[in-house]
Amino acid sequence: MVAAASVFQPRVCSGARRSPPIRRPDATHFSIQATSNPYLKELQRHLTTRLVRASDAIRSFPSTFLEAFVGSTFTFHHQPLRPTEGNFAPVDEIGGRIKITEIEGKIPADFPDGAYIRNGSNPLFGALHTVSSIFGQTEDIWVEGEGLLHALYFTRSSNGTGTWSLSYSNRYVQSDSFTVETARGRPCFLSVTKGNPLAMLAAGILNMLRFGKMIRNMSNTSVFVHAGRVFAAAENDMPNEIDLQSLDTIGSWSIGGDWHMPFTAHPKVVPGSGELVISGINIVKPYLTIGVVSEDGMRLRQKVDLKLDRCTFCHEIGITEMYNIIMDMPLTLDRRRILRAAPLMDYGKESYARIGVMPRNGDAESVVWFHVEPFCILHLINCFEEGDEVVVRGFRVPASIVMGPTLERNEESGDQDMNEEYFSRLYEWRLNLKSKDTTGRWLTGTDVALEFPVINENYVGLHHRYAYTQVVDVQASLAGGCGTVNFQQTLQCSLRPKFGGFAKLHLDQEMKESGGDVINVEYHHLERNQFCSGATFVAKANALHEDDGWIISFVHDEGTNLSQAHIIDARRFESAAVAKITLPQRVPYGFHGAFVSKTT
């Protein structure tokens, strides 16, 4: 998932790729609202005035002078990886498909023809970067590399023998930012997300002056399909359409020119109608917009500003048969934080939280808001209607882990322990539309952290019995050590999570014993030093049961440095994988995947 530290409306072009136009906005757009502190108020006024004057002066120069200023003032450094983080390092494009011959086990006879494709962060020029200047230092965070697609193709022989032909390919998503930086052969966008407040402000202004956007577009988070077309997405940009066979980028998708703003990485297909519900967050008003796209993907049928009073980091929205579900939580983006030495993205645990239930074609006034205790959630499992209630299930954490988890230092041993901020657990809300009452409960315990959920996509918005997740290996995630920023007894870390297996959640099977998981959970454990990413459910054609199908995921062995794709029978979940497919090169850990069947 890309951290949308600045989700300004991007200037992107559809069709053939070309360098984006340079737009020079007025720097007063970045003025910071003062607080009640007189000293801070004066400091804010002074810095803003100075930056506005500097921006006005710089704008009058040709772009060559502006680039010369950046080149002489800012220095890019590679961020080092810890010894245990080798598979987070980027890989090169391989330049085409490579045939696969090494398969342990057997591809199921009824596995569908198609392609398993996964997105993920793959930084250009060898690494994520730290940028130093006279203003201070800024740095990329771990989710900010450019999107690289990894695709595994399954083709069944046509001679009736049941044999398979498998091949692998990878390709960068050719976003407009990618095109600019590869044409110049060096990193160009200054890091904005994390660092010294003045340096972040200066970097954001200079990025806007040079490229018309505050942060580069990455398209590194997810892959989704609509109307037979395949898209790569991240919430700070519009999606990019992908040619599935070549992985070429066809162009950005603005839905007929009606959507020129950020676009969620997790749109939802409405059961029955086939429409696509989308959303977009923005650091300036409108903060959150909901849209409905026609079944054929050609028309934007609905576009609604929800008129929120803050930019909540709504990474994913939910749907039911009749409603859109909006998660308004206190994980927010606020540019006014910069001069308070705080990150653009932060979690306000003292602020409010609410969940909105919006009729599919309603407006801002039609949303029924349910106030709940403050929460942070990145990924929903699903939402559905049950009588008078709307059921919302997702992985809730008490505070954000996007900027890095918090460790608590054990005063006796000096060891670092993961606190509950990093611990992702399944939570269920029940929102009664008739009585307006709200209830909530945890469905999983504190012994295992779970994330990146998937379900059988035929059940999106409907009642369902099963969900599948990746299981966090906390010790492996901590093995490389932590960051160096001390906050008394805590450390703010830049850890990259590792997932050591999978879980199958039996959502309708409650446990009788007290403590631990409320629902029944099965586990599929990987071998030692093996970690997964991009788990996806592949439904069996003509399935008789919801869980008729397989989990497919990329798995990397850090001992052998080999990457595979594992296929797991979802109905024999704890058994060994039915097939392990060795890939021709290392596949770094990434984010979300999808299976695109030949019949799509």
Q: What would you note in describing this structure?
A:
The structure is a single chain. The chain is mainly beta and 600 residues long. Helix content is 10%, strand content 37%. The protein contains five helices and 41 strands. The strands form ten sheets. It has a five-stranded antiparallel β-sheet with strand order 2-8-7-4-41, with no helix packed on it. Strands 3-40-39-38-37 form a five-stranded antiparallel β-sheet, with no helix packed on it. The longest helix has 22 residues, at 38-59. It is globular and about 70 Å long.
What is shown here, in short?
With 600 residues, the chain is mainly beta. The protein has 5 helices and 41 strands. The radius of gyration is 24 Å and the shape is globular.
